[in-house]
Amino acid sequence: MILIGAHMPTTNGIDKVPQETVRIGGNAFQVFGHNPRTWRAQIPSQSKVKSFKEQMVKHKFLSSSAFCHSGYLMNLASPKDDMWEKSIQLLITEMKICLSLGIKFLNIHPGSHLNSGETQGISRIAKAIDLALEKVSEVILLLENVSPKGANIGYKFSQIKDILDNVSEPRRIGITYDTCHGFDAGYDITSMEGVRKLLDEIENNVGLEKLKMIHLNDSKAPLGKALDRHENIGRGFIGDKGFSVFLSFEEIQKIPWILETPGSNEEHAQDIRHVKEILGMM
């Protein structure tokens, strides 16, 4: 069964997300656990948690099809101690939010070393993850590949491997593959050879069993142009042909696909329909 959905707004309450996901044609979703542009985060009320879990059961969502995404301010690679410590505390709170809701996976961007060097940045990320995992059980952190902009860490899988090699509990770490970010970094998924090369690189560095989510985004920029600008499915440089190739692989079809494309839920519904058309499901 193909699992597909979108990053969903929680404006009307996180407990409304399962029903709204079904309405747009999805059976998987991603949410923010709090306002991603602030440091403030808190555990949802018991009533909200209860309602959310009831809706998950009512609409028959699998535990493997629900994801949280971390806030934008977090930087686990920061060389600045105050920022680094603040990021760790936010990560811990976000993990507690996931735990309370019964959401198994929390997606995070590894971080930016801010010109302090990749080696130090990776060490800071691994230490931050260890400190967070000590505080919260069960939740699995997903390291997302990022666009190779500035001092970002995680745009190639050898960097993600280095993080995994330095954490105490690698079994509690998975990965997310973002198609736009990967296209920025030169991963050409528009050809069979390019997708196979990508899958081999994932397997050789971290293992394909670590791949738990795919952010399905077209790219407004051409291959290798690191702009990190998501586009609706089929309207960018990956295009219908590229997604037809990428989504044809059995390894890809086993992983939940989450859209982070521009627009509201109505645009996401259109993108979901379009993906199903590409797959010949409609």
* Share of helix, binned: 40-55%
Q: Beta-strand level of the residues, as a percent range?
A: 15-25%
The stretches of 5 or more residues where confidence is low (pLDDT under 50) are none
- C-alpha geometry: globular
Using the CA coordinates, give the radius of gyration: 18 Å
Widest sheet: strand ordering:
1-2-3-4-6-8-9-12
Compose a concise summary of this entry.
The chain is built from ten helices and twelve strands. The chain has helices at 17-23, 46-58, 81-101, 118-135, 157-166, 179-184, 192-205, 239-246, 250-253, 265-278, and strands at residues 4-7, 28-32, 66-69, 105-108, 111-112, 140-144, 152-153, 173-178, 211-216, 218-219, 230-231, 257-259. The longest helix is centred in the N-terminal third of the chain and has 21 residues, at 81-101.
Structure explained in plain terms:
41% of the residues lie in helices and 16% in strands. It is built from 10 helices and 12 strands. The strands form 3 sheets. The chain has an 8-stranded parallel barrel with strand order 1-2-3-4-6-8-9-12. The protein has a two-stranded antiparallel ribbon with strand order 5-7. The protein has a two-stranded antiparallel sheet with strand order 10-11. β1, α1 (17-23) and β2 form a beta-alpha-beta unit. α3 crosses α4 (118-135) and α4 packs across α5 (157-166). The mean pLDDT is 97.
Which SSEs are present, and which pair or pack?
Blueprint: E1 4-7, H1 17-23, E2 28-32, H2 46-58, E3 66-69, H3 81-101, E4 105-108, E5 111-112, H4 118-135, E6 140-144, E7 152-153, H5 157-166, E8 173-178, H6 179-184, H7 192-205, E9 211-216, E10 218-219, E11 230-231, H8 239-246, H9 250-253, E12 257-259, H10 265-278
Parallel strand pairs: 1-2, 1-12, 2-3, 3-4, 4-6, 6-8, 8-9, 9-12
Antiparallel strand pairs: 5-7, 10-11
Helix pairs in contact: 3-4, 4-5
